[in-house]
Design brief:
It contains eleven helices and seven strands. By secondary structure, it is α+β, with helices and mostly antiparallel strands. It is globular. It has two domains: 85 residues, Winged helix-like DNA-binding domain superfamily/Winged helix DNA-binding domain (Arc Repressor Mutant, subunit A, Orthogonal Bundle); 100 residues, Nonspecific Lipid-transfer Protein, Chain A (2-Layer Sandwich), CATH 3.30.1050.10.
């Protein structure tokens, strides 16, 4: 029986001079923009990217990484010993897309069909905090919150009306939460109470929980759009 060779088709282009059209040429393939989202807070290994996007197959992830690399949006490199593993990271130009990703997410959160209780990745949770942060509500408050999401740790700092979210040792913060990203989202956006999640063992708090509860006052989802 003769076997047919399957060739990879080149992605379709819009053949349109509009910058928006070309942006879709670059990141319009399914999963491409979410792969970039997962790299916004630093480099990741292939397996870590896959874990952050559980609905994405390894084959499609490979294709998207190759496409984004060819477009100049990310690079792959090998970490020095003792790690000696290959990681993927955004180029400087690729990182410039962060405010675009944030604005798109904030716009889409107004959709009546958006369900904020669905699971989300740890990076997505951190970007959500950066996007939905209200500097006026924070005022001159200074605080830091550490988050442990399985093997990933982040530190979020609020100072002088500015929020920063970075990978780091969670234990350096005033308060540390060990939780799932979706549980943090539920508390921040008012769907579940911290006390209830602590009582059920779903969230563990180290430090004064009142600091985190004050922190949740700085966020609010945008109103739903009329239909």
């Amino acid at each position: 029986m003769k076997l047919e060779k399957i060739t990879k088709q080149a992605p379709r282009r819009y053949e349109d001079a509009c910058g928006t059209a070309h942006a879709l040429d670059l990141v319009g393939e399914r999963w491409a923009l979410l792969v970039m989202r997962e790299l916004m807070l630093g480099p990741k290994r292939f397996g870590d990217l896959k874990a952050g996007l559980p609905g994405l197959s390894a084959n499609v992830l490979t294709q998207r990484l190759e496409g984004l690399e060819a477009a100049g949006l990310l690079v792959k490199r090998r970490l020095p010993p003792p790690a000696s593993v290959q990681v993927y990271e955004l180029t400087d130009w690729g990182r410039e897309a962060e405010p675009i990703v944030g604005a798109l997410g904030k716009w889409a959160a107004r959709s009546p069909m958006h369900d904020p209780t669905l699971p989300l990745s740890s990076v997505s949770m951190m970007l959500s905090l950066k996007t939905m942060f209200d500097a006026d509500k924070a005022g001159d408050v200074c605080l830091s919150i550490g988050f442990r999401f399985g093997p990933e740790e982040f530190v979020v700092t609020v100072a002088d009306g500015v929020l920063t979210a970075e990978r780091g040792v969670a234990g350096t913060a005033q308060v540390v939460l060990t939780a799932r990203p979706s549980d943090v989202a539920a508390m921040v956006y008012g769907f579940r109470a911290l006390d209830d999640l602590r009582a059920s063992g779903e969230v563990v708090v180290e430090g004064d929980p009142a600091v985190f509860e004050r922190f949740t006052d700085f966020f609010e989802l945008p109103p739903k759009a009329g239909v």
